[in-house]
Specification:
heterodimer, A: mainly beta, 4-stranded antiparallel β-sheet, 0% helix, 52% strand, B: mainly beta, 7-stranded mixed β-sheet, 50% strand, globular
């Protein structure tokens, strides 16, 4: 069975600080996909990134960056120079095939104070 | 950008009543999913649907739940006799075959059972 752990339940930062969200996953499959979703206060799930198990390149998209480390089964997410609009719950998720169900972590609530 | 549409956005129902949650997936998508999020908790997989049949379901998806694709465009989740613990946000998602960018989620239906 798959498992995703987000140990940080809530992080509070002041605007412009960097914030890193941890995600640790468990799976016996060698082919899998990792995702990050953002859930703003309005409640919808916003897709941020998808990474497959064969691609360990780190990725940067604007103020967002992701660090995938297979050796530690981690897929961490950093928001650089945080803004109030980044306040949301962030979920890490795992799928063992491209079409299979998503297993979500418990989420990390990020509160960015002005 | 194509969207997954869910209606209604919020539904209040009395315990024991049947409720149908509706979703219109993206038109060329072939895989459909329902997820549930109890308030403040993680997002949980309920069921996946492909080629007009259930491909996988979770332990949560018991005999009280059913899914249907009645007309080639809608994808519905029915709860036969609602319980208080069914109160949650229900998300529909869809995905095209071989999608690189993952699932597209709808904005959710908040179900409140009173």
């Amino acid at each position: 069975a798959q498992k995703v752990t987000q140990a940080q339940t809530e992080i509070s930062v002041v605007e412009k600080e960097d914030v890193t969200l941890d995600c640790v996953y468990e799976t016996r499959d060698t082919t899998y996909y990792l995702f990050w979703y953002k859930q703003p206060p309005s409640g919808e799930l916003v897709f941020l990134i998808r990474r497959n198990s064969f691609d360990e390149q780190n990725e940067i998209s604007g103020r967002y960056s992701w660090n995938f480390q297979k050796s530690t089964s981690s897929f961490n997410f950093t928001i650089t120079a945080s803004q109030v609009v980044d306040s949301a719950v962030y979920f890490c998720a795992l799928s063992i095939t491209a079409g299979n169900k998503l297993t979500f972590g418990g989420g990390t609530r990020v509160l960015v104070k002005p | 950008e194509p969207e997954v549409t869910q209606t209604p956005s919020h539904q209040v129902t009395q315990m024991g009543q049947e409720v149908i949650l509706r979703c219109v997936p993206i038109s060329n998508h072939l895989y459909f999913y329902w997820y549930r999020q109890i308030l403040g908790q993680k997002v949980e997989f309920l069921v996946s649907f492909y080629n007009n049949e259930i491909s996988e379901k979770s332990e949560i998806f018991d005999d009280q739940f059913s899914v249907e694709r009645p007309d080639g465009s809608n994808f519905t989740l029915k709860i036969r006799s609602t319980k208080l613990e069914d109160s949650a946000m229900y998300f529909c998602a869809s995905r095209e075959q071989g999608a690189v960018y993952g699932y597209t989620f709808g904005s959710g239906t908040r179900l409140t059972v009173v």
